[in-house]
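From the pipeline queue, job 12 of 40. The input is one protein chain; the requested action is below.

Action: predict structure.
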Amino acid sequence: MKAGFVLKPKNTLKIKDTFLRIKEIFEKKGIDVYLDSLSAKAIGLLGIDFEDMCKQVDFIVALGGDGTLISVARRAYKFDKPILGINAGNLGFLTDIYPDNVEEFLDNFLKGNYRIDERMVIEIEFKAKKLYAFNDVVISKDVISSMINVRVDTNESFLNTYRGDGLIISTPTGSTAYNLSAGGPVVYPLTESFILTPICPHSLTQRPLILPSNFILEISVNEQVSKLILDGQEIYTLNDKIIVKKAKRNAKLIHRIERNYFDVLREKLHWGEGK
């Protein structure tokens, strides 16, 4: 069995020590370890090109926080490989294995005691290219002092024009990210739907909207200059339109069988805690 590692790009000294410790455990369990070349360069080791690595391995390990896993899910989407998140970050909505628990998890993993959750991915048609987002697509104004008009048509019908700072189109996985900060709903991550949440709308009647995942959304900004932001990590200049739809395949995340999403919500959002 082969595993490909991608590391959190910051705190390189700490992440190197953590990676070497985990690598030793993987190899002790009979799993060959490959390291992405950019990650390897950051910590002074030799690695392999990311795409070549994805072609050769059985699964990919994102060692970092949720941002690292989200980046891996987007970049590795076309290779259809399951992703394991090991939490060397802070938040941990998606990365539920901690470095101290790796050996115990691998013992269960090698016995088949794990599960794979399939998460919806967004496909974006932009300037004759296909882009992907795991968490969200954000159309944001380009100038702080201005507002933009974001028109949304769906299934050949006009839906709405959002006037304000922009619009978030989120997956259920991304509902606890920017969407939540902007006042959008928390949606169970294994459902499949689009969540449309306006950013600081000019009208108080504009509210978040949940649409079925089989809808095709045409988003246009009427030649205004704005920003197209994917997962908060890739940024493009937008002055025309994009097509947003559910991607053909889902992303696959490896989790402990015992993992419970509602336990994660209570822990991360501090639900039910007294003052």
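Job complete. The mean pLDDT is 92.
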